[in-house]
Sequence to fold (163 residues):
Amino acid sequence: MGARPEMVDVAESPCSALFRPADLTFLLHAAADRMAVELDRAAVAIGLSDVRDWLVLAALDDGQQRTQFELSKMVCVDKTTLIGVLDRLEQRKLVVRTVDPRDRRVRIPQITAAGRRVFAKFATARDAAEAKALDGVGQEQRAVLFELLGRIADRQEAPQPVS
Fold:
């Protein structure tokens, strides 16, 4: 994601507007960084460490049971980073981890009632950050942007032919 509070002042993005090549990867990275900076600021304001805390709460809020590995894939963070996020959230009593009855080595994180309250509070801040980032972009363009980003995010790697 973008700037982490422990590495960079959350009020600023390390990306410069002086260099913007017409390159999809660069533009997506810069846009994601801008959002992460805004969302990190909002997360810190409500007592979270950064936007990754909220991403985990958001993924758990649907009530589906997922292993820590499945959750790491869902929120696009490596499992080592996820463990740190879950440790923080568990210390704050926003999540609990239970043992998977099918495999005692596997943990199933679940959001708590307190976690749901923080999730809802942050969702308001997220909406405000999105509105700020998309200021001047019309509703039709926003719909197209979301549609296209969804397609990119959901695209699976094409299977390789067997030789």
Q: What stands out?
A: The beta strands are 95-100, 103-111. The chain has a mean pLDDT of 85.
